[in-house]
Design brief:
Structural class: mainly alpha
Number of helices: 15
Number of strands: 0
Distance between the termini: 36 Å
Helix content: over 70%
Order of helices and strands: HHHHHHHHHHHHHHH
Shape: globular
Amino acid sequence: MGRRVNAATPSPDTHPFRIHNFRCYWVSRLAMTLAQYAMLLIIGWQTYTIARDGGMTIAEASGQLALIGLLQFLPLFVLTPFSGLAADRFDRRALGRLTVLLQLLCAVVLGWATWSEAIALPILYGIAVLLGIARGFAGPALSALAPNLVPKPILPTAIALSSISWQVGMIGGPALGGYLYAIEPALPYAVATGLFAISMVALTLIGRVPQPPRRTDQRPIGAIIDGMRYVVRNKMVLGAITLDLFAVFLAGATALFPVYARDILMVGETGLSQLAMAPAVGAALTAAWFSFRPIKTGVGPKMLWAVAIFGVATIVFGLSTYMPLSLAMLFIVGAADMFSVYIRQSLIQLHTPDDKRGRVSSVSMLTISASNEGGDFFSGTLAFLIGPVAAVVAGGIGAIVTVALWARVFPVLRTTKTFDPPPDLLHDTPTKQSEGAPT
C-alpha cells in the first residue's frame, strides 16, 4: 500500500495508510472486531434461545440478556481505571496482544462447548465475564496507541479509518456469526479463533512506537486520580464523553435484537444478522465518507444533532413490525452514531496530552462500556419490566432529552466550531480556558 514510512517522522500530509505501523494496527482492529461481533451475536442468540427453549417467557428470557450485559460490564467497571494506567505505563502493543489472546481462548472454549452440545447458560455467563476483562484492557491500550502511529495533523483521518475497520467488523462480524451458525453452530467460533490469531500477528508486526513520558514521583492511585481529574476539569472532554454515556445507555436496543428477530419480526438467525448489520452498514458508510471528507467546522452542534437523530430513529425502530422499515431505521441509527463517534473521539484525542491519553481513554472506554454493556443490562431489565417495544421507545425518548440537557449544561458543545484545541489546553495544569472555553 505504498512505500513504507517511518511512523516517527512522516510528513504532515502523509495518508495514514502510507504508514506501516498504522496499516498493521488497522488490520489488527478489523480482524479483532470481526471476531468480537461474530461471537457477541451468537452469545446473545444462544442465551435467548436456551432461555426460551427452557420454558422462560419473552420477558424472562430478556432478563437473561440483561444479565449477559451486566456480566460484561462489571469487570470493565472495576478494571478500567487500572487498565488506563497500564496503557500509560506499559507497552500498549503488548497489552493489546494479551487481550487478543484471552479473547482467542474464549472463542476456543465456546466453539468446543457448542460443537460438543455442552453449551449452557453458566458457560455463557463465565465467558461474558472474561470478555469484559479482555475488552477492559484492550480499549484503553489500543485507543491510546493510535495517536502514537500518525502525526497530529492527520489524526482525525486516522480515527475515521480506524472507525471504518471497527464498523466493517461490525458488519462482517454479525454476517459471519448468523450465517455460519445456520450452517454449523460451532463454526462462528472457529472462524473467530482464526481472526483473533490474525489480529495478534498484525499487532506483533507493529514496530516500536514512542512511549509517553512517565512521572516517577507519582503513585499509581495518584496517577489514576490525575487522569480522572483532567476529564472532570476539561468540560469539552467531560461533555463529549458523558453525552455518549447517557444517550446510548438509554437508547441501546442491540441487546434486544434476539427478541425482535425471534418474537416480534419473526425473522430467525439470518434476520438477526441483518438487524445487527444494518446499523454497522450506516456507520461504515459514514466513516468512509469522513475519511475522504473530514468535518472541519461546526463540530459541536453537529454532534448534538447526530445524537438527537439517533434517538428519533430508535423510537421508530422500536415501534416497527415491518422488517424493511426496521432495517432502514437501524441504518440511520448507525450513521448518526458514527457521526457522533467521529467528532467525539477526535475531540477527546486532540484535547488530551499524550501522557494522559491512556487514562483518559480508559474513562472514555468505561463510559462506552457503561453505555453499551450497561445499556444492554438496562434495556434488558426494562424489557423485563414493561416489554421490549416500550423499552426501546422509552430509550429513544431518553436520548433526545439527554441532548437537550447536555446542550444547556455543557454550552461548550454548542459553541465548539473546530477540532483545534486552544494553545494552553494541553498543559498539565488546567487553566480557565481548559475549563470549557470554546475553540
